[in-house]
Amino acid sequence: QQRYLNAKRYVKLAIVADRSMVTKHNGKLKKLRKWIYRIVNTINEVYRSLNILVALVYLEIWSKEDLINVTSAAKDTLASFGNWRATDLLKRRSHDAAHLLTNIKFDGTTVGKAYVASMCQQDSSVGINQDHSKINLLVALTMAHELGHNLGMSHDVVNTEKQCNCGTCVMAPTISDQISKLFSNCSKNDYENFLTLYKPQCILNEPSKTDIVSPPVCGNELLEVGEECDCGSPETCQNPCCDAATCKLTSGSQCAKGLCCDQCKFSKSGTECRAAKDDCDIAESCTGQSADCPTDDLQRNGKPCQNNAGYCYNGKCPIMLNQCISFYGSNATVAPDICFNYNLKGEGNFYCRKEQATIFPCAQKDKKCGRLFCVLGPTGKRISCKNTYSEDDPNYGMVDLGTKCEDGKVCNSNRECVDVNTAY
Hints:
By secondary structure, this protein is an alpha+beta fold. The protein has helices at 2-6, 19-24, 29-47, 74-92, 136-150, 185-198, 320-328, 337-340, 420-423; strands at 9-17, 52-61, 97-102, 112-114, 126-130, 242-243, 248-249, 261-262, 265-266, 272-274, 284-285, 304-305, 310-311, 332-334, 353-355, 358-360, 374-376, 404-406, 409-411, 417-419. Helix 3 (29-47) packs across helix 5 (136-150).
Protein backbone atom coordinates (compact mmCIF):
# COMPACT_ATOMS: atom_id res chain seq x y z
CA GLN A 1 0.00 0.00 0.00
CA GLN A 2 2.74 2.46 0.98
CA ARG A 3 4.68 1.60 -2.18
CA TYR A 4 1.56 2.27 -4.27
CA LEU A 5 1.04 5.65 -2.57
CA ASN A 6 4.69 6.63 -2.94
CA ALA A 7 4.96 5.82 -6.67
CA LYS A 8 5.69 8.77 -8.95
CA ARG A 9 2.63 10.06 -10.79
CA TYR A 10 2.50 11.99 -14.07
CA VAL A 11 -0.40 14.28 -14.96
CA LYS A 12 -0.45 14.68 -18.73
CA LEU A 13 -2.22 18.00 -19.11
CA ALA A 14 -4.03 19.49 -22.10
CA ILE A 15 -4.70 23.23 -22.02
CA VAL A 16 -7.19 25.08 -24.19
CA ALA A 17 -6.96 28.88 -24.47
CA ASP A 18 -10.17 30.45 -25.73
CA ARG A 19 -10.80 33.39 -28.07
CA SER A 20 -10.79 35.91 -25.19
CA MET A 21 -7.19 34.91 -24.37
CA VAL A 22 -6.15 35.57 -27.97
CA THR A 23 -7.79 39.01 -27.83
CA LYS A 24 -6.10 39.75 -24.48
CA HIS A 25 -2.70 39.05 -26.06
CA ASN A 26 -3.57 41.14 -29.16
CA GLY A 27 -3.49 38.06 -31.40
CA LYS A 28 0.17 37.43 -30.54
CA LEU A 29 0.04 33.66 -30.24
CA LYS A 30 3.74 33.29 -29.47
CA LYS A 31 3.33 35.57 -26.45
CA LEU A 32 0.25 33.63 -25.32
CA ARG A 33 2.07 30.30 -25.63
CA LYS A 34 4.95 31.62 -23.52
CA TRP A 35 2.47 32.76 -20.86
CA ILE A 36 0.97 29.25 -20.75
CA TYR A 37 4.36 27.49 -20.68
CA ARG A 38 5.28 29.56 -17.61
CA ILE A 39 2.01 28.57 -15.94
CA VAL A 40 2.70 24.87 -16.53
CA ASN A 41 6.30 25.14 -15.28
CA THR A 42 4.99 26.59 -12.02
CA ILE A 43 2.29 23.92 -11.66
CA ASN A 44 4.92 21.22 -12.16
CA GLU A 45 7.08 22.86 -9.49
CA VAL A 46 4.16 23.00 -7.04
CA TYR A 47 3.24 19.34 -7.50
CA ARG A 48 6.75 17.93 -7.21
CA SER A 49 6.37 17.99 -3.41
CA LEU A 50 3.62 15.36 -3.81
CA ASN A 51 5.81 13.28 -6.15
CA ILE A 52 3.63 14.31 -9.10
CA LEU A 53 5.07 15.70 -12.33
CA VAL A 54 2.79 17.78 -14.55
CA ALA A 55 3.58 17.79 -18.28
CA LEU A 56 1.89 19.81 -21.01
CA VAL A 57 1.10 17.27 -23.73
CA TYR A 58 -1.33 19.37 -25.77
CA LEU A 59 -2.10 23.05 -26.28
CA GLU A 60 -5.05 24.25 -28.34
CA ILE A 61 -5.73 27.92 -29.01
CA TRP A 62 -9.16 28.93 -30.29
CA SER A 63 -7.88 31.77 -32.43
CA LYS A 64 -10.94 32.00 -34.73
CA GLU A 65 -13.91 31.13 -32.54
CA ASP A 66 -14.72 29.29 -29.33
CA LEU A 67 -15.70 25.64 -29.80
CA ILE A 68 -17.98 25.78 -26.75
CA ASN A 69 -20.08 28.54 -25.21
CA VAL A 70 -17.78 30.20 -22.65
CA THR A 71 -19.95 32.31 -20.32
CA SER A 72 -19.70 33.94 -16.90
CA ALA A 73 -21.71 31.02 -15.47
CA ALA A 74 -18.79 28.87 -14.31
CA LYS A 75 -20.91 25.77 -13.65
CA ASP A 76 -22.37 25.75 -17.18
CA THR A 77 -19.01 26.48 -18.82
CA LEU A 78 -17.39 23.63 -16.87
CA ALA A 79 -20.15 21.22 -17.95
CA SER A 80 -19.87 22.20 -21.65
CA PHE A 81 -16.09 21.99 -21.54
CA GLY A 82 -16.27 18.51 -19.96
CA ASN A 83 -18.69 17.40 -22.65
CA TRP A 84 -16.57 18.79 -25.47
CA ARG A 85 -13.46 17.17 -23.99
CA ALA A 86 -15.12 13.73 -23.91
CA THR A 87 -16.65 13.87 -27.38
CA ASP A 88 -14.00 15.84 -29.28
CA LEU A 89 -10.62 16.48 -27.64
CA LEU A 90 -10.02 12.99 -26.22
CA LYS A 91 -10.50 11.48 -29.66
CA ARG A 92 -7.75 13.68 -31.06
CA ARG A 93 -5.15 13.62 -28.32
CA SER A 94 -4.59 11.31 -25.39
CA HIS A 95 -4.25 13.17 -22.05
CA ASP A 96 -5.22 12.81 -18.38
CA ALA A 97 -6.89 16.15 -17.64
CA ALA A 98 -7.92 19.17 -19.71
CA HIS A 99 -8.10 22.74 -18.44
CA LEU A 100 -9.61 25.79 -20.10
CA LEU A 101 -7.96 29.19 -19.73
CA THR A 102 -10.24 32.16 -20.40
CA ASN A 103 -10.24 35.91 -19.90
CA ILE A 104 -14.01 35.96 -19.40
CA LYS A 105 -14.86 36.95 -15.83
CA PHE A 106 -16.90 34.35 -13.95
CA ASP A 107 -19.83 35.38 -11.74
CA GLY A 108 -19.11 36.42 -8.16
CA THR A 109 -15.60 35.87 -6.82
CA THR A 110 -15.04 32.62 -8.76
CA VAL A 111 -11.77 32.46 -10.69
CA GLY A 112 -11.81 28.72 -11.36
CA LYS A 113 -13.93 25.60 -11.10
CA ALA A 114 -13.23 21.87 -11.45
CA TYR A 115 -14.81 18.52 -10.69
CA VAL A 116 -13.50 16.84 -7.54
CA ALA A 117 -11.86 13.38 -7.57
CA SER A 118 -12.33 13.09 -11.33
CA MET A 119 -8.79 12.51 -12.64
CA CYS A 120 -8.77 9.96 -15.52
CA GLN A 121 -12.59 10.16 -15.93
CA GLN A 122 -13.75 10.78 -19.47
CA ASP A 123 -16.13 13.72 -19.07
CA SER A 124 -15.12 15.10 -15.68
CA SER A 125 -11.30 15.21 -15.62
CA VAL A 126 -11.51 18.92 -16.44
CA GLY A 127 -11.26 22.40 -14.95
CA ILE A 128 -11.82 25.98 -16.07
CA ASN A 129 -9.61 28.90 -15.05
CA GLN A 130 -9.90 32.65 -15.39
CA ASP A 131 -6.72 34.46 -16.41
CA HIS A 132 -7.42 36.82 -13.51
CA SER A 133 -4.06 38.47 -12.86
CA LYS A 134 -1.15 40.15 -14.60
CA ILE A 135 1.03 38.06 -12.28
CA ASN A 136 1.67 34.72 -13.97
CA LEU A 137 2.28 32.96 -10.64
CA LEU A 138 -1.23 33.80 -9.36
CA VAL A 139 -2.89 32.34 -12.46
CA ALA A 140 -0.65 29.27 -12.20
CA LEU A 141 -1.65 28.76 -8.56
CA THR A 142 -5.32 28.98 -9.55
CA MET A 143 -4.84 26.23 -12.12
CA ALA A 144 -2.79 24.20 -9.62
CA HIS A 145 -5.71 24.61 -7.18
CA GLU A 146 -8.30 23.43 -9.73
CA LEU A 147 -6.06 20.49 -10.68
CA GLY A 148 -5.95 19.68 -6.95
CA HIS A 149 -9.73 19.25 -7.05
CA ASN A 150 -9.36 16.77 -9.95
CA LEU A 151 -6.92 14.87 -7.71
CA GLY A 152 -9.45 14.57 -4.88
CA MET A 153 -8.50 17.60 -2.78
CA SER A 154 -11.16 19.73 -1.11
CA HIS A 155 -10.66 23.24 0.27
CA ASP A 156 -8.56 23.84 3.36
CA VAL A 157 -11.15 24.91 5.89
CA VAL A 158 -9.74 26.80 8.83
CA ASN A 159 -11.04 26.14 12.37
CA THR A 160 -12.49 22.72 11.68
CA GLU A 161 -11.69 19.51 13.46
CA LYS A 162 -9.48 18.68 10.47
CA GLN A 163 -7.01 21.40 11.52
CA CYS A 164 -5.52 22.18 8.12
CA ASN A 165 -2.54 23.98 9.55
CA CYS A 166 -2.01 26.37 6.67
CA GLY A 167 -3.91 29.55 6.00
CA THR A 168 -2.56 30.24 2.52
CA CYS A 169 -1.80 26.85 0.99
CA VAL A 170 -2.67 25.88 -2.61
CA MET A 171 -6.13 24.58 -1.64
CA ALA A 172 -7.15 27.63 0.44
CA PRO A 173 -10.76 28.53 -0.49
CA THR A 174 -9.79 32.07 -1.56
CA ILE A 175 -6.71 33.67 -3.06
CA SER A 176 -4.74 35.83 -0.67
CA ASP A 177 -1.75 38.12 -1.01
CA GLN A 178 0.45 35.71 0.92
CA ILE A 179 1.47 33.39 -1.85
CA SER A 180 2.26 29.80 -0.97
CA LYS A 181 3.22 26.92 -3.24
CA LEU A 182 2.68 24.39 -0.45
CA PHE A 183 -0.04 21.82 0.14
CA SER A 184 -1.58 21.51 3.60
CA ASN A 185 -1.64 18.25 5.57
CA CYS A 186 -5.37 18.04 4.68
CA SER A 187 -4.65 18.22 0.94
CA LYS A 188 -2.05 15.47 1.26
CA ASN A 189 -4.55 13.28 3.12
CA ASP A 190 -7.28 13.99 0.55
CA TYR A 191 -4.90 13.05 -2.27
CA GLU A 192 -3.84 9.79 -0.59
CA ASN A 193 -7.50 8.91 0.05
CA PHE A 194 -8.27 9.60 -3.61
CA LEU A 195 -5.44 7.27 -4.73
CA THR A 196 -6.61 4.52 -2.36
CA LEU A 197 -10.30 4.80 -3.18
CA TYR A 198 -10.29 5.53 -6.93
CA LYS A 199 -6.96 3.98 -7.99
CA PRO A 200 -6.57 6.31 -11.02
CA GLN A 201 -4.51 4.38 -13.57
CA CYS A 202 -3.83 7.03 -16.22
CA ILE A 203 -1.41 9.04 -14.07
CA LEU A 204 0.94 6.10 -13.54
CA ASN A 205 2.17 6.31 -17.15
CA GLU A 206 5.15 8.53 -17.84
CA PRO A 207 4.84 10.76 -20.93
CA SER A 208 7.41 10.10 -23.65
CA LYS A 209 9.81 12.89 -24.69
CA THR A 210 7.87 13.54 -27.86
CA ASP A 211 4.51 13.79 -26.04
CA ILE A 212 5.58 16.97 -24.26
CA VAL A 213 4.79 20.11 -26.27
CA SER A 214 6.33 22.82 -24.06
CA PRO A 215 10.01 23.79 -24.54
CA PRO A 216 12.36 21.54 -22.53
CA VAL A 217 13.42 22.77 -19.09
CA CYS A 218 16.49 21.10 -17.61
CA GLY A 219 15.85 20.49 -13.92
CA ASN A 220 12.07 19.93 -13.99
CA GLU A 221 12.48 16.13 -13.58
CA LEU A 222 10.65 15.46 -16.87
CA LEU A 223 12.66 13.78 -19.61
CA GLU A 224 12.25 16.04 -22.63
CA VAL A 225 13.60 16.34 -26.18
CA GLY A 226 17.36 16.96 -26.16
CA GLU A 227 17.85 15.59 -22.63
CA GLU A 228 19.50 12.28 -21.75
CA CYS A 229 18.24 12.46 -18.17
CA ASP A 230 16.63 14.96 -15.78
CA CYS A 231 17.06 14.46 -12.05
CA GLY A 232 15.88 17.89 -10.89
CA SER A 233 18.01 20.85 -9.87
CA PRO A 234 21.72 20.51 -9.01
CA GLU A 235 20.76 21.18 -5.35
CA THR A 236 18.20 18.37 -5.13
CA CYS A 237 19.50 15.78 -7.64
CA GLN A 238 20.48 12.51 -5.96
CA ASN A 239 21.25 10.54 -9.11
CA PRO A 240 24.97 9.80 -9.71
CA CYS A 241 24.25 8.78 -13.33
CA CYS A 242 22.92 12.21 -14.35
CA ASP A 243 24.59 15.62 -14.48
CA ALA A 244 21.83 17.88 -13.17
CA ALA A 245 23.31 21.04 -14.68
CA THR A 246 23.32 19.76 -18.27
CA CYS A 247 20.74 16.94 -18.18
CA LYS A 248 23.34 14.68 -19.81
CA LEU A 249 24.54 11.29 -18.51
CA THR A 250 27.69 11.39 -16.38
CA SER A 251 30.86 9.98 -17.93
CA GLY A 252 30.69 6.19 -18.37
CA SER A 253 26.95 5.98 -17.64
CA GLN A 254 24.61 4.20 -20.07
CA CYS A 255 21.40 5.20 -18.31
CA ALA A 256 20.07 7.18 -15.35
CA LYS A 257 16.80 5.40 -14.61
CA GLY A 258 14.51 2.64 -15.81
CA LEU A 259 13.54 -0.86 -14.73
CA CYS A 260 16.55 -2.16 -16.67
CA CYS A 261 19.07 0.38 -15.38
CA ASP A 262 21.34 -0.87 -12.63
CA GLN A 263 24.03 1.42 -11.21
CA CYS A 264 24.11 3.58 -14.37
CA LYS A 265 24.48 0.54 -16.68
CA PHE A 266 21.96 -1.49 -18.69
CA SER A 267 20.89 -4.59 -16.76
CA LYS A 268 22.14 -7.89 -18.18
CA SER A 269 20.04 -9.51 -20.88
CA GLY A 270 17.52 -11.90 -19.32
CA THR A 271 17.17 -10.03 -16.01
CA GLU A 272 13.47 -10.16 -15.06
CA CYS A 273 12.08 -6.62 -14.86
CA ARG A 274 8.34 -7.26 -14.55
CA ALA A 275 6.99 -10.40 -12.89
CA ALA A 276 3.90 -12.16 -14.22
CA LYS A 277 0.86 -10.86 -12.30
CA ASP A 278 -1.13 -14.06 -12.77
CA ASP A 279 -1.73 -17.06 -15.08
CA CYS A 280 -2.64 -14.83 -18.02
CA ASP A 281 0.35 -12.50 -17.80
CA ILE A 282 3.93 -13.05 -19.00
CA ALA A 283 7.08 -12.01 -17.13
CA GLU A 284 9.25 -9.53 -19.05
CA SER A 285 13.06 -9.49 -19.07
CA CYS A 286 15.64 -6.83 -19.94
CA THR A 287 17.24 -6.91 -23.41
CA GLY A 288 20.67 -5.71 -22.28
CA GLN A 289 20.43 -2.92 -24.88
CA SER A 290 18.04 -0.55 -23.13
CA ALA A 291 17.14 0.85 -19.71
CA ASP A 292 13.45 0.22 -20.36
CA CYS A 293 11.57 -2.96 -19.56
CA PRO A 294 9.88 -4.30 -22.73
CA THR A 295 6.15 -3.57 -23.14
CA ASP A 296 3.89 -5.52 -20.81
CA ASP A 297 2.84 -8.62 -22.73
CA LEU A 298 0.01 -11.07 -22.07
CA GLN A 299 -0.36 -14.83 -22.44
CA ARG A 300 -1.97 -15.93 -25.69
CA ASN A 301 -5.75 -16.12 -25.74
CA GLY A 302 -6.94 -19.67 -25.11
CA LYS A 303 -4.16 -20.72 -22.72
CA PRO A 304 -5.66 -22.70 -19.78
CA CYS A 305 -5.73 -20.74 -16.49
CA GLN A 306 -6.81 -21.13 -12.87
CA ASN A 307 -6.18 -24.90 -12.84
CA ASN A 308 -8.08 -25.41 -16.11
CA ALA A 309 -11.18 -23.63 -14.78
CA GLY A 310 -10.90 -21.21 -17.69
CA TYR A 311 -8.89 -19.97 -20.67
CA CYS A 312 -6.98 -16.69 -20.93
CA TYR A 313 -8.74 -13.91 -22.80
CA ASN A 314 -7.06 -10.49 -23.22
CA GLY A 315 -5.02 -10.97 -20.07
CA LYS A 316 -7.94 -12.08 -17.88
CA CYS A 317 -9.16 -15.54 -16.89
CA PRO A 318 -12.94 -15.21 -17.23
CA ILE A 319 -14.86 -17.98 -15.43
CA MET A 320 -18.58 -18.10 -14.64
CA LEU A 321 -18.05 -18.69 -10.92
CA ASN A 322 -16.17 -15.40 -10.51
CA GLN A 323 -18.80 -13.58 -12.55
CA CYS A 324 -21.54 -14.93 -10.22
CA ILE A 325 -19.52 -13.89 -7.16
CA SER A 326 -19.03 -10.37 -8.53
CA PHE A 327 -22.82 -10.00 -8.99
CA TYR A 328 -24.12 -11.76 -5.88
CA GLY A 329 -21.29 -12.08 -3.36
CA SER A 330 -19.10 -14.88 -2.09
CA ASN A 331 -21.78 -17.53 -1.49
CA ALA A 332 -22.95 -17.46 -5.12
CA THR A 333 -22.22 -20.32 -7.52
CA VAL A 334 -23.02 -21.07 -11.15
CA ALA A 335 -26.59 -22.32 -11.63
CA PRO A 336 -27.28 -25.88 -12.86
CA ASP A 337 -27.64 -26.41 -16.62
CA ILE A 338 -31.44 -26.43 -16.41
CA CYS A 339 -31.42 -22.67 -15.68
CA PHE A 340 -29.49 -21.95 -18.88
CA ASN A 341 -32.38 -23.46 -20.89
CA TYR A 342 -34.10 -20.07 -20.53
CA ASN A 343 -31.59 -18.79 -23.11
CA LEU A 344 -33.11 -21.15 -25.71
CA LYS A 345 -36.36 -19.17 -25.57
CA GLY A 346 -35.16 -15.88 -27.04
CA GLU A 347 -37.69 -13.92 -24.97
CA GLY A 348 -37.28 -10.90 -22.68
CA ASN A 349 -33.70 -10.87 -21.41
CA PHE A 350 -32.97 -14.50 -22.24
CA TYR A 351 -31.08 -14.84 -25.50
CA CYS A 352 -27.63 -15.13 -27.03
CA ARG A 353 -27.64 -12.06 -29.24
CA LYS A 354 -29.60 -8.89 -29.68
CA GLU A 355 -29.16 -6.76 -32.78
CA GLN A 356 -31.15 -3.53 -32.76
CA ALA A 357 -34.51 -4.82 -31.51
CA THR A 358 -34.16 -8.36 -32.88
CA ILE A 359 -33.51 -11.09 -30.32
CA PHE A 360 -31.69 -14.29 -31.30
CA PRO A 361 -32.27 -17.28 -29.01
CA CYS A 362 -29.29 -19.48 -28.16
CA ALA A 363 -28.79 -22.77 -29.98
CA GLN A 364 -28.66 -25.72 -27.54
CA LYS A 365 -24.84 -25.87 -27.79
CA ASP A 366 -24.49 -22.11 -27.13
CA LYS A 367 -26.86 -21.72 -24.17
CA LYS A 368 -23.98 -21.07 -21.74
CA CYS A 369 -22.85 -18.06 -23.77
CA GLY A 370 -26.04 -16.03 -23.27
CA ARG A 371 -27.50 -14.67 -20.02
CA LEU A 372 -25.53 -15.79 -16.94
CA PHE A 373 -27.44 -17.76 -14.29
CA CYS A 374 -26.31 -18.14 -10.70
CA VAL A 375 -27.67 -19.63 -7.47
CA LEU A 376 -27.21 -18.45 -3.91
CA GLY A 377 -26.28 -20.79 -1.08
CA PRO A 378 -27.16 -24.51 -0.99
CA THR A 379 -29.97 -25.48 -3.35
CA GLY A 380 -32.87 -27.57 -2.13
CA LYS A 381 -35.44 -29.20 -4.40
CA ARG A 382 -36.49 -25.80 -5.72
CA ILE A 383 -33.84 -23.90 -7.63
CA SER A 384 -33.99 -20.13 -7.94
CA CYS A 385 -32.21 -19.23 -11.20
CA LYS A 386 -30.80 -15.78 -10.51
CA ASN A 387 -29.95 -13.46 -13.39
CA THR A 388 -29.34 -9.78 -13.84
CA TYR A 389 -29.59 -7.23 -16.65
CA SER A 390 -29.33 -3.51 -17.32
CA GLU A 391 -31.40 -1.31 -19.63
CA ASP A 392 -28.29 0.79 -20.38
CA ASP A 393 -25.71 -1.91 -21.04
CA PRO A 394 -26.81 -4.88 -23.18
CA ASN A 395 -23.75 -6.93 -22.11
CA TYR A 396 -24.38 -6.50 -18.39
CA GLY A 397 -25.36 -9.84 -16.84
CA MET A 398 -24.36 -11.82 -19.94
CA VAL A 399 -21.63 -14.47 -19.77
CA ASP A 400 -18.32 -12.66 -20.42
CA LEU A 401 -16.62 -13.17 -23.79
CA GLY A 402 -13.80 -15.73 -23.64
CA THR A 403 -15.49 -17.66 -20.81
CA LYS A 404 -15.17 -21.46 -20.80
CA CYS A 405 -18.58 -22.87 -21.79
CA GLU A 406 -17.54 -26.54 -22.05
CA ASP A 407 -14.28 -28.46 -21.88
CA GLY A 408 -12.06 -27.14 -24.67
CA LYS A 409 -14.65 -24.53 -25.69
CA VAL A 410 -15.15 -20.80 -25.13
CA CYS A 411 -17.76 -18.12 -25.86
CA ASN A 412 -16.74 -16.10 -28.91
CA SER A 413 -17.86 -12.58 -29.84
CA ASN A 414 -20.99 -13.97 -31.54
CA ARG A 415 -21.85 -15.74 -28.26
CA GLU A 416 -21.27 -19.16 -29.76
CA CYS A 417 -19.58 -21.92 -27.76
CA VAL A 418 -16.67 -22.80 -30.05
CA ASP A 419 -13.42 -24.78 -29.98
CA VAL A 420 -10.80 -22.82 -28.03
CA ASN A 421 -8.12 -23.64 -30.63
CA THR A 422 -10.00 -21.94 -33.46
CA ALA A 423 -11.75 -19.19 -31.45
CA TYR A 424 -8.93 -16.62 -31.67
